[in-house]
Design brief:
This protein is an alpha+beta fold. The chain has a single domain, classed as Collagenase (Catalytic Domain), CATH 3.40.390. The protein is built from eleven helices and six strands. A four-stranded mixed beta sheet has the order 3-4-6-5, with helices on both faces. Strands 1-2 form a two-stranded antiparallel sheet. Helix 1 crosses helix 7 and helix 5 crosses helix 9. The chain is globular, with a radius of gyration of 19 Å. The structure holds zinc ion. The site of zinc ion has 7 residues, from helix 5 and helix 9. Belongs to the peptidase M48 family. Its cofactor is Zn(2+).
Length: 273
């Protein structure tokens, strides 16, 4: 890259950079590109993924994914509104899809674009187990973990890509850059791992969301016991590599369940499915 291009790019990055406090984590996060610009790129990636995979429609399982997703989305909105963050989700376009794939996995892209693989259904076991996974995945998106995992180089690329899209429409290379930034690795649809602290954060936030949505938070620990039993020592893909150990996770979720119930009570939710 020549110097002039670098300067233009740097200027672009600085233009887009601003700090914001994330309502879910209370941390200052770098909002490098506004949601209104970056989320449409995520939506494009999501649609491409759906186009290249077998989406299951109309079955009771597919309906369950949608039902749970809508409740978790609603819980997120209620929590945000109650805490003074009206409009935080204004650029979100929630969508929930079940995809035929034997991998034990699920993910949520920025902007509320969710995929569950059929391989996770037997371990989730029931609607409450689905809610525990859904809460966790949605929490990653709400806490902006995807952006935080990007390197400085990727931040520059995405800011540049956002400008390129604004100026000249989309192209293949831009899609690749954005895909990498959102964690869709070289194997399309396999999300890159989050850091251990992000996993723990998503567990805590997700537990509250599932409780506010009316699902029994005690079941999250049960889900992870099943994950542990199923994995034979190996964690499923989204939870790979830097995840907390299953035992730490189960202990945390068990310890946090009463606080999640207390949070749900603030929203008038006192009985749980
Ligand atoms: Zn996670």
């Amino acid at each position: 890259m020549n110097t002039r291009k670098s300067i233009v790019l740097l200027g672009t990055v600085l233009l887009f950079m601003s700090c914001a406090t994330n309502p879910f984590t209370g941390k200052q996060t770098l909002a490098l590109v506004p949601n209104s610009q970056i989320l449409p790129m995520a939506f494009q990636q999501y649609n491409q993924f759906l186009g290249e995979n077998k989406v299951i429609k109309g079955t009771s399982d597919a309906q369950m994914i949608t039902r749970v997703g809508q409740k978790i989305a609603k819980a997120s909105e209620r929590w945000l509104n109650a805490n003074g963050y009206q409009g935080y989700l204004k650029d979100y376009k929630w969508e929930y899809n079940l995809v035929e794939d034997k991998n034990v996995n699920a993910w949520c892209m920025p902007g509320g674009k969710i995929v569950f693989y059929t391989g996770i259904l037997p371990i989730a076991k029931n609607e409450t187990g689905i809610a525990a996974v859904m809460g966790h995945e949605v929490a990653h998106a709400l806490a902006n973990h995807g952006q935080q995992r990007m390197s400085a180089g990727q931040i520059q690329q995405v800011a540049g890509a956002a400008t390129a899209i604004a100026v000249s429409g989309k192209d293949q290379k831009t899609q690749q850059i954005v895909g990498t930034a959102f964690g869709l690795g070289s194997q399309f649809g396999v999300m890159l791992p989050f850091s251990r602290s992000h996993e723990t954060e998503a567990d805590r936030i997700g537990l509250q969301l599932m409780a506010i949505a009316g699902y029994n938070p005690d079941e999250a620990a049960e889900l992870w016991k099943r994950m542990k039993a199923n994995s034979g020592g190996q964690a499923p893909p989204e939870f790979m590599s830097t995840h907390p150990s299953s035992d730490t996770r189960i202990a945390n979720l068990t310890a946090w369940a009463p606080a999640a119930r207390a949070e749900a009570k603030k929203f008038g939710v006192t009985t749980f499915k």
